[in-house]
């Protein structure tokens, strides 16, 4: 059977760089063609930055791996021109059910309010996610964009300099040298780049193993997230069932620490476990089995001179909460507009340090949330387990205990609280759109707000006057003029005005709020642009 | 008679729970049990209201109210 992850998608081809008399120099090189590397490359190429992606493989990810993609990730993918096929292929879900022992204790709805172009979450195998991004790369190439993926190009050595980075790359036809002004390392949790640069990466190891299995079955379980604490079929441990496209179901079973990994992965041991969970008479095929352990950790900084780290290479979390790939997408989102301004000489290199500051803040938030979920799901002491079971026990009857149940706090975009790029809040408006926040979507008749805020600085005015454009020291902001009347559902008012009667927002190219006030005041917004580009 | 609050009332449930686990971190089971006992007494004093406390005891004992 030729599955999508078994076919080379970017087969090795000889590059002219391999025959160059002296090493070619690129504007940007991305190491790793996973979701984050591809997203970063597309983002740069869309802005006209010349970029090469090097990957030691030539295929999309093996097995489903990351499967839960958040609304914020889909909003970013929309900006990259790849969101639609993901949503069309993905399984939408918003209901989660929690079971304890042999009974359901409660269920929750992820997004009770409406008025967003994208669903709260979709489930989609990582290989489909990557495939949609590779398709977008091909589309950009067909339109002449300066983007290239080189399969089976393995970086063996890295040399860092003030003005550039040198790479030694191994290929099936031998090694070559190449240079880049900027290097973005998206080479995963075991990042060879991190290792080659001798950078430390320490954190908390969780002593537990999880069996992850993708099974193909015709089953009438609904498209919901089902989570079990201490179920009869996996005593003392946890379990998760989640639907993916193509009748593939993700099953996650906690196994404990002292196990024989090789033995537990054998089909003759996996299948009885799955039958105990799904029922003896449910027919299924095993598509993919893996056992994973995890750590929660991050690099001290995500920028080292001209080398930038994004995604799992920079930070790792437990899988509970879908905070891995989703946070990596936000890394790329945060980084690429800044890099473009620096490359164009419109912002100081210092702006890239704000990438490190904002995204280490996000990583800390993700690590805190995912560590807490892990502590709840896999209690590490007798008292921790007693308290956990007491919460679950009470949650069945009493609403108060339900917010304490933690089967994963699902990924939400980080608000860059206190960022040096943000200006002081000067609007008596809703907290969800305070400076630092990712703009929430809002309906505008048949359209939505976010696509109108993409990839540039925007002066979003709601029932307020402002010039159609202002330019401050080479950086332009263009106006998007709206009125609360543009949205009869009043979500725009609720999310952006609150009790205020008018508002002007300065929105960054990554759709985060840089500044806001009730009316346009030229000096204030000029200063806000300077701040948002690292000049103040 | 005041009613026992059984709807969500914590400012930040996750912060509270993490703080509770941290207080128990590294303690033996006996020391953890003693900590819980002291915690119950501290909280009971803060609540004060005898009716509310009686309802809380019933709820925790899982007896019909």
Distinctive features:
heterodimer, A: 536 residues, alpha+beta, FAD/NAD(P)-binding domain, Glutaredoxin, 8-stranded mixed β-sheet, 12 helices, 26 strands, 27% helix, B: 65 residues, mainly alpha, 3 helices, 0% strand, globular
Task: Draw up the topology in text.
The complex is a heterodimer of chains A (536) and B (65).
Chain A: E1 24-31, H1 35-46, E2 51-54, E3 68-70, H2 71-79, H3 83-89, E4 91-92, E5 95-100, E6 103-109, E7 121-123, H4 126-142, E8 147-150, E9 154-160, E10 165-170, E11 176-185, H5 192-196, E12 203-217, E13 225-229, E14 238-244, E15 248-256, H6 261-264, H7 267-278, E16 284-298, E17 303-304, E18 307-309, E19 315-316, H8 325-343, H9 350-377, H10 382-395, E20 443-444, E21 447-448, E22 457-462, E23 469-472, E24 475-482, H11 491-496, E25 503-507, E26 513-517, H12 522-532
Helix pairs in contact in A: 1-4, 1-8, 2-3, 8-9
Chain B: H1 13-24, H2 29-47, H3 50-61
Please tell me about this protein's structure.
The complex is a heterodimer of chains A (about 525) and B (about 60). Chain A is about 25% helix and about 30% strand. Chain A is of the alpha+beta class and about 525 residues long. Among the domains of chain A are: about 5-95 and about 120-200 and about 300-365, FAD/NAD(P)-binding domain; about 430-530, Glutaredoxin (3-Layer(aba) Sandwich), CATH 3.40.30. In chain A, the strands form five sheets. In chain A, strands 1, 2, 8, 9, 10, 11, 17 and 18 form an eight-stranded mixed beta sheet that branches. An eight-stranded mixed beta sheet of chain A has the order 6-5-13-14-15-12-16-19. In chain A, a hairpin with a 3-residue loop joins strand 14 (about 240-245) and strand 15 (about 250-255). The longest helix of chain A is centred in the last third of the chain and has 28 residues, at about 350-375. The mean pLDDT of chain A is about 95. Chain B has a domain at about 30-65. The chains are: A alpha+beta (about 525), B mainly alpha (about 60). At the A-B interface, helix 9 and helix 10 of A face helix 1 and helix 2 of B.
